[in-house]
Structure formats: C-alpha cells, structure tokens
Amino acid sequence: TGACYEFRNFNFSNTAGTRARGVRMAVGNNQYGFRFFCCSFDGFTNGIESDYAIDYDVMGLVLDRCTFKNCSAYGVRTTAGGIVQECYFYNNTTAGLYRGAHAAAPGAISIVNSVFHANGVGIQFTTLTGASTHVRNCAFASNTDGIKYGGSDAYAVSVVNSIFTGHTYGINLDRIPQILNEHHNFFYNNTNDVHTSYMTKDNTDVSL
Fold first, then answer.
1. How many angstroms separate the CA atoms of 143 and 11, rounded?
2. CA distance 31 to 1
C-alpha cells in the first residue's frame, strides 16, 4: 500500500511462440501507482493489463510517450483512472485502449495528444458508471471505429479538438453518457461520422 513504480525507456517485446501479457498488474489491494515513460510494447495479447474484472484496479496509471503495437487483443486493458499522453497505439487487433468497469479505484481517465491508427477500435469503453473520460487533441485514423462506447451508461464523456478519418464510425455511442461534451472535432472520410440516437454532432464540428 502506498508504493509507486516507474518504468523509463523499457522496450517490452514478445518473442515466445505463445503470446501473453506484457505487464500484468495483479497487485491485490488497489493502492499502487504505475508510470510508464518512453516505453514500447510489441506483440503481446495485452501490452498492459490492469482490469478489475481479471485482477485489480491500479490507482494512478500514467502512460507518457509510450507505444503499443501489434497486440492480439488490446494495447492497454485497464479499469484504472489516470493519464495517457503523447502515446501511439498501432495495429492492436481488438482495440488500442480498452477501459472497463472499475471497482475499488474509481477515477477519471484523460487521454491527450495521442494517436490511434489501424486498430480494431481506437478507444473502447464499457460499463463506466461512476467514471469520467476525457479525450482531447487526439488523432484517430483507419480504425474500425475511432471511439466506441457500449455497456452500461457512462458518466461524463468529453471528446474535444480531435481528428477522425477513415472509420466506419468516427464516434460510436451505443449508450448515452450522463454528460456528453463533444465539440470542435474534425471528421473526414468516415462512412459515418457519429452513430447514436442520443446526440448529434456539435455545430462547432467540421465534416468533409
């Protein structure tokens, strides 16, 4: 309890015939903080896994200038609150980043200045009751969906000043957030820019 771990300039790469997780956070008491700075994760099932449905939450997950690529499921699978900044998610089969239902460590997650390219889904969220999600200044290109929300109703969701290009859906909302802040986004060459019966694009958005 109270410990914090920091990893700097590590390259995690799977070379085994059978894939597994790059980093699995099975800490047991939901009190640890983890920071990854300038790290790379290549070729795992999940590059980082901190999902309460499997193990435990992590209080304070910080991903700073990291790369997650070629994972057979998720680049990052987490239920933790924290910060994702200046990260690159590429060619992860299910999703670049997955945020699931938290339990003992609720908290907002902020995703800023990051790129999601050629993943199954760029960012996938589900069952977010009690948590907030903020996406700002991000680029989404050639994922199936840029951002996808499903499962139970979410709390505050904010998507601001981001670019969506080359998707089936730029933003795909299957359920309604209690608060939705979506504006000043740029949509280009998507089959559908926004898919939901709960909202329309803000008039500050641009579509081409």
1. 25
2. 5
List beta partners, residue 140.
Answer: 116, 164
Q: Quote the CA–CA distance of 127 and 74 in Å, as a whole number.
A: 17
Indicate the DSSP class of residue 16: S
- Among 99-103, 155-159, 183-187, which range has the highest average pLDDT? 183-187
- Give the global pTM: 0.90
DSSP output for 108-172: -EEEES-EEES-SEEEEEE--TT--EEEES-EEES-SEEEEEESSPPSEEEEES-EEES-SEEEE
Q: What is the pLDDT of residues 38-49, one digit of tens each?
A: 999 999 999 998
Q: What's the rounded Cα separation, in Å, for the pair 119 and 97?
A: 9
d(CA 86, CA 52): 25
Residue 102 has pLDDT above 70, yes or no: no
Residue 182: closest CA among 165, 170, 167, 166: 170
Q: How far is residue 49's CA from residue 36's CA, in Å, rounded to a whole number?
A: 13
